[in-house]
Specification:
The protein is of the alpha+beta class. It has five helices and four strands. Helix 2 packs across helix 5. It is globular.
Length: about 170
């Protein structure tokens, strides 16, 4: 777990460094994968899908793209010239509308190094993948076992990949 936390801190430091270098918002995409192994085959497949989606969606306004890999899984950082609130709206749309979007974690960091939360757009919090209640409450209360969550996430990824084998996204 310490390696995962260190990896998250390093990613945030990378985000800050990129913001300082370019003076523009940074989109950070990663996979919300449960458990301590964030680099499973399923997580890697989901990240490849997310990477293609974000690269294509923000291509026109992308200034710099960087892929990171570590104990917290892979992530993509995209410096964009698009308005940060618009970038967040696009990100939430991907998280909400893509068949495996509920496991995508797309943050938009602004110049101060803060990320734009869903509440700034008056969008409800993320829902639990198992019971569709507020995901934060389920996590806090331990409503579902870790294995139950891993199985649900893996099934979501597996079903999508099997049904879309010819198309990556």
């Amino acid at each position: 777990m310490n390696n995962i936390l260190r990896d998250r801190e390093k990613r945030y430091d990378d985000v800050l460094s990129i913001i300082n270098k370019y003076g523009l918002p940074v989109i950070c995409g990663k996979i919300n994968y449960p458990g301590n192994d964030k680099n499973t085959l399923e997580a890697q497949r989901a990240f490849q899908i997310l990477q293609v989606l974000l690269t294509e969606r923000f291509a026109e306004n992308s200034i710099h793209t960087q892929i990171l890999a570590g104990d917290d899984g892979s992530s993509i950082l995209i410096v964009t010239s698009i308005d940060p609130m618009e970038a967040k709206k696009i990100s939430v749309s991907i998280e909400t509308n893509h068949p495996i979007g509920r496991i995508f974690d797309i943050d938009v960091y602004v110049i101060e190094g803060n990320s734009i939360g869903r509440e700034k757009l008056n969008i409800e919090t993320r829902k639990c993948i198992i019971c569709n209640e507020d995901a934060r409450i389920c996590m806090r209360t331990g409503k579902h076992s870790l294995q139950e969550v891993i199985d649900s996430v893996n099934k979501l990824i597996h079903d999508y990949v099997c049904n879309n084998s010819s198309a990556m996204v």
